[in-house]
Design a protein that fits this description.
Elements: H1 3-11, E1 14-23, H2 27-35, H3 37-40, E2 50-56, E3 63-69, E4 75-86, E5 90-98, E6 104-117, E7 120-131, H4 134-141, H5 143-158, E8 161-164
Antiparallel strand pairs: 1-7, 1-8, 2-3, 3-4, 4-5, 5-6, 6-7
Length: about 160
């Protein structure tokens, strides 16, 4: 099997996801949910997953190291680096989905924007993901649903969404 050709083909499979949702919570509270590791661990990931946050350094050049754990016990590690963190307005980070052996499957540049709307906060998540392996193709295919569910979990943590666009 020609793995170089496989990786090259997979690397050309990209997805872009943009989700915007209004949360009935002040921007500072939403910012804290995105930037404080103990708060992030309470909502990050799809429904029914738990999250083990090993590092979430929400500042420029800060490290990301966490594991999403599925209900069946499957572990989905993620590493990365923050590029920008402007409180309480936006975050920019690169996230890399890896397996337990550290093999990189997808790389995604994520921008999270928080806009105050009265006493609520409009959160917009823009993700540009690229598959780096065959396994990564399936991962980026589920990016829209994964982020939608993750924002559902954030909503549950914060307590109230008005709309998603």
């Amino acid at each position: 099997m020609n793995t170089a050709g496989t990786a090259q083909t997979a690397a050309q499979d990209t997805r872009e996801v943009v989700i915007s949702r209004l949360f009935e919570a002040p921007r500072e509270q939403v910012w804290a949910a995105w930037t404080e590791p103990d708060r992030l661990a309470r909502w990050w990931g799809p429904k029914c997953f738990t999250c083990e946050v090993r590092k979430w350094e929400a500042w420029p050049d800060g490290a990301i190291d966490l594991v999403m754990i599925a209900p069946d016990g499957a572990r989905y590690p993620m590493t990365g680096t923050f590029h920008e963190a402007v409180a309480p307005e936006w975050l920019v980070f690169t996230a890399v989905a890896v397996d337990e052996d550290g093999h990189r499957h997808i790389e995604a540049l994520t921008t999270v924007t928080l806009d105050a709307v009265g006493k609520a906060t409009q959160v917009t998540v823009e993700v540009h993901g690229t598959a780096l392996t065959e396994a990564g193709i399936g991962m980026i295919a589920g990016m829209q649903e994964g982020w939608s569910q993750s924002l559902d979990c954030l909503d549950g943590y914060l307590g109230g969404t008005q709309e998603e666009t």
